């Protein structure tokens, strides 16, 4: 167990309460007092004996480095007194170390004046599998096509189109994954990927000097203008706002970066550390699976990086039958394709271009009501 080094100073004087002060390497001090030592009847205690007793921090979080003992001659100190002094002094130090810092109240920093984008957003699309990447979809001219990084394990070529290919980086990964992570990213760049979709601030150190444009994904939880300003300072060139924002909040947000929002698709509800499909049936998670609740609603399970599972909403967000999402100051509007067939991807994209009727099963998400 990792322990905290401390020093101790103890004072034992006749007719005075004994004291013990414990100090950590940051200068914090915990002090305890005990009863006055008694006169020795047979043999007086020695400073060396007291030092040995005080050093016995046992199974605490502390490790005693040095003990300074001031002791008058001819005194007796019981083991119970020494143990209580040490226990109480360490408890006082622990209380100081774990106390919350004093709350600071700072003024809100002013934001730089942001330009207001008044045009309609360009449509982008994110795909979950290689079958959804069809020529018919690319002919609709999405501004960006987002592809999960793990797809490049099997992709050997990308069809040409006028927009931009972006690799979607996993929101959760382990340090041991990074060499393979970077290997796939290099392969993707060689196939024509020119940007990375960042869903975790931990991606940024890995992407330095990679020559890729960096765009923020929903995993960064952009909820206000200060978050956009922060990401702009970090070198991102656009960012996706949280899908928990209402449309009015997105509209009124000053935008220091070109901003994107998800306007179609099943929204992710949960990312599990373990593969739910493997735990139940063995490793066959590329087949379609779903969790069904007591009402009969099916929540699709998508495979995620590291043999994890991403649980999707049972109904897709749909805004294609209304126009207000086009007037939010967005530069980009994303269609998030997950379980759709290639034909459905094309049809939905066309519906968003021209305005199509809502499907039988859909949700408005939090676009109107926000987080309750």
TrEMBL record:
<feature type="region of interest" description="Disordered">
    <location>
        <begin position="24"/>
        <end position="44"/>
    </location>
</feature>
<protein>
    <recommendedName>
        <fullName>Peptidase U32 collagenase domain-containing protein</fullName>
    </recommendedName>
</protein>
<dbReference type="Pfam" id="PF12392">
    <property type="entry name" value="DUF3656"/>
</dbReference>
<dbReference type="InterPro" id="IPR020988">
    <property type="entry name" value="Pept_U32_collagenase"/>
</dbReference>
<dbReference type="InterPro" id="IPR001539">
    <property type="entry name" value="Peptidase_U32"/>
</dbReference>
<dbReference type="Pfam" id="PF01136">
    <property type="entry name" value="Peptidase_U32"/>
</dbReference>
<feature type="domain" description="Peptidase U32 collagenase">
    <location>
        <begin position="2"/>
        <end position="97"/>
    </location>
</feature>
């Amino acid at each position: 167990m990792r322990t905290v080094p401390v020093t101790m100073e103890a004072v034992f004087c006749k007719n005075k309460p004994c004291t013990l002060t414990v100090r950590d390497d940051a200068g914090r001090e915990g002090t305890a007092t005990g009863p006055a030592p008694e006169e020795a009847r047979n043999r007086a205690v020695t400073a060396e004996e007291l030092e040995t007793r005080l050093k016995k921090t046992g199974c605490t979080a502390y490790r005693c480095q040095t003990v300074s003992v001031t002791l008058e001659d001819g005194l007796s100190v019981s083991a119970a007194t020494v143990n209580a002094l040490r226990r109480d002094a360490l408890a006082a130090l622990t209380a100081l170390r774990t106390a919350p810092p004093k709350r600071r109240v700072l003024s809100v920093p002013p934001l730089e004046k942001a330009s207001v984008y008044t045009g309609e957003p360009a449509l982008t699309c994110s795909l979950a599998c290689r079958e959804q990447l069809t020529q018919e979809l690319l002919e609709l001219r999405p501004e960006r096509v987002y592809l999960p990084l793990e797809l490049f394990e099997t992709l050997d070529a990308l069809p040409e189109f006028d927009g931009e290919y972006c690799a979607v980086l996993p929101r959760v990964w382990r340090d041991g994954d990074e060499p393979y992570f970077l290997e796939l990213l290099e392969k993707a760049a060689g196939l024509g990927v020119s940007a990375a979709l960042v869903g975790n601030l931990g991606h940024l150190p890995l992407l330095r000097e990679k020559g890729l444009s960096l765009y923020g994904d929903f995993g960064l939880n952009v909820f206000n203008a200060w978050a956009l300003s922060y990401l702009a300072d970090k070198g991102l060139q656009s960012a996706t706002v949280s899908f928990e924002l209402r449309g009015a909040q997105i509209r009124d947000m000053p935008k220091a970066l070109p901003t994107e929002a998800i306007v179609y698709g099943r929204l992710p509800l949960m990312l599990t550390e373990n593969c739910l499909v493997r735990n139940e049936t063995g490793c066959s998670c590329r087949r379609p699976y779903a969790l069904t609740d007591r009402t009969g609603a099916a929540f699709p399970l998508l495979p995620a990086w590291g043999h994890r599972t991403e649980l999707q909403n049972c109904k897709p967000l749909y805004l294609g039958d209304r126009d207000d999402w086009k007037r939010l100051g967005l530069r980009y509007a994303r269609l998030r394709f997950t379980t759709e067939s290639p034909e459905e991807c094309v049809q939905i994209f066309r519906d968003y271009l021209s305005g199509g009727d809502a499907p039988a099963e859909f949700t408005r998400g939090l676009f109107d009501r926000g987080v309750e």
